[in-house]
Design brief:
Oligomer: single chain
Largest sheet: 6 strands, parallel
CATH topology of the largest domain: Rossmann fold
CATH superfamily of the largest domain: NAD(P)-binding Rossmann-like Domain
Radius of gyration: 20 Å
CATH class of the largest domain: Alpha Beta
Number of helices: 12
Distance between the termini: 19 Å
Strand content: 5-15%
Bound molecules: nicotinamide-adenine-dinucleotide, zinc ion
Helix content: 25-40%
CATH architecture of the largest domain: 3-Layer(aba) Sandwich
Length: 340
């Protein structure tokens, strides 16, 4: 059995002898990945590659809360109680006062978006295109605005997600399925492409029907088969990534924060090489960004809009229905907060 949930926060009940940074009663947020804080990778700000928790038998990086065997099968946070391995390092104590929502996204969404924007490295006065306006894309737009990126263009298929991004100052391009968003982005950028592009879509990309079929198959299969399928079908799920590559300008930067799982995913190497594209990617390293993010969360004006971000709040026992709603993007669902 797997217990899901990799974005937890809560109150400390009990601590082990090595966890000297927290005590019972503290309100803490846990980074989605589990890291030790003292290995070579942790010392290089790469907690997502922690050498103490790496899932070596799967050839993967640091273990994550609430995933299958591929990521260490550590019981996750969609539960009333959670055992926290490596607690001397992970938990981030948050101040008394503001509501939980102010800090909840510090576990994953905001540091991920922060890393995406940092890796995108948009030059002064430049344009950043963000593919995918789910939670990661939405916060990428917000963080980019906070960090002074002048022009942000958001791309998605879902009207309310486009609308939300517009409200925080992004220009938007709607991906309709018949049109080509790439052409619109070229038109918006003097035919040159965006200086930087973030792919915040990942393998859930809408594109060829084959992909959707395989996805349905994978989600219905027992977990062992699903794991194998996910590794194999990656090649069919790169439609957003390919569009992102085609709309980054020559000499620009591509920041891939959406997760890709294909073991042999073909990439347009000629285009990437000829356009001289820089690419950065990977799982987020939340702890590396906490000190930079925290002032925005404790600011009374809530500049990242954390408190109004959740579209739904449901008790734990209603989680199955909430998952379905989220997967089908029904009822304007963007972010669902589960309350045990
Ligand atoms: N690297 C990390 O550490 C990290 C952390 C968290 C999430 N992620 C990944 O980031 C990605 C986004 O996460 P999320 O929670 O925002 O997911 P999400 O599924 O809510 O958002 C993805 C969005 O992309 C849109 N989309 C689909 N195909 C598209 C296309 N071809 N062009 C433009 N938009 C398209 C969807 O409509 C959706 O709004 C996922 O792959 C997730 O696994 C990575
Ligand atoms: Zn480590």
């Amino acid at each position: 059995m797997d217990i899901l949930g990799h974005e937890p926060m809560g109150i400390v009940e009990e601590v082990g002898s090595e966890a000297k940074n927290i005590k019972a009663g503290d309100r803490v947020v846990l980074p989605s990945n589990i890291s030790c804080g003292h290995c070579f990778m942790c010392e290089h700000d790469l907690q997502s590659q922690c050498e103490t928790t790496q899932v070596r038998e799967q050839g993967k990086g640091a273990a994550l809360f609430g995933y299958t065997k591929l990521c260490g099968q550590v019981a996750g946070g969609q539960a009333e109680y959670l055992r926290v391995p490596q607690a001397q390092c992970g938990p981030i104590k948050v101040p008394e006062g503001p509501a939980d929502d102010r800090f909840l996204y510090l576990s994953d969404v905001i540091p991920t978006a922060w890393q995406a924007v940092k890796y995108a490295d948009t030059p002064k006065g430049g344009t950043l295109a963000v593919y995918g306006l789910g939670p990661i894309g939405q916060f990428s737009v917000r963080v980019a605005k906070q960090l002074g990126v002048e022009r942000v263009i958001g791309i998605d298929l879902v009207p309310e997600r486009l609308e939300l991004a517009r409200r925080i100052g992004a220009e938007t391009v709607e991906w309709t399925g018949d049109g080509d968003p790439a052409l619109e982005i070229m038109d918006l950028t003097d035919g040159r492409g965006a200086d930087s592009v973030i792919d915040a879509v990942g393998t859930e990309s809408h594109g060829a029907p084959v992909q959707q079929l395989m996805q349905t198959v994978a989600s219905r299969s027992p977990s062992a088969i699903a794991t194998k399928l996910i590794e194999k079908v990656g090649r069919d799920r790169t439609s957003a990534l390919h569009t992102a590559i085609s709309t980054v300008r020559r000499g620009g930067t591509l920041s891939i924060i959406g997760v890709y799982g294909g073991a042999a995913t073909p990439m347009p190497m000629m285009e990437l090489f000829d356009k001289q594209i820089q690419i950065r990617m990977g799982q987020a390293n939340p702890k590396s960004w906490v000190d930079e993010i925290m002032p925005l969360l404790t600011d009374d004006s809530d500049p990242l809009g954390t408190e109004s971000f959740a579209t739904h709040r449901v008790p734990l026992e209603d989680a199955p229905g909430a998952y379905e709603m989220f997967q089908k993007k029904q009822d304007g669902a963007i972010k669902v907060v589960l309350e045990p």
